Amino acid sequence: MTKLFLDDLRTHNMVYAEPAAVAFVVVRSYAEFVKYIEENGLPYFISSDNDLGLDENGEVAPDGYAAAKWLVYESGLDLRNLKFKVHSANPAAAAQIRGVLNITSGSLSKEIVKLYHSDPQASGEDFRDENSYGNF
Length: 136
Fold this sequence. Notes:
Layout: E1 3-6, H1 12-15, E2 24-27, H2 30-40, E3 45-48, H3 64-74, E4 83-86, H4 91-102, H5 108-118
Parallel strand pairs: 1-2, 1-3, 3-4
Helix pairs in contact: 3-4
């Protein structure tokens, strides 16, 4: 089972003690994250940072929150069994990522995705549960 690690600087060995660090696929950007999942399907487990540095133009790169929103609202994948951990040092951003990924559990996820697609201004943030820590 594949584990995906999204972080622009750290390695999985810096976040996880062995043997959990074995078998992670490391992606360094939002674009690599999307490409990996589009080409290989949904991994068993995702570990995500939020702040992903600068892009090739020196602008702030799309972050882990953008990756989580893509996964929930645009990928079309069934995320009900996804396990994840947010390893960001940014507590507010970590809560946002956990919030958007936590809405995928159960039947609520299909209703929220329908709402999101029917209202282009919707962000999903109203459904955030900042006290939740994912399915790790």
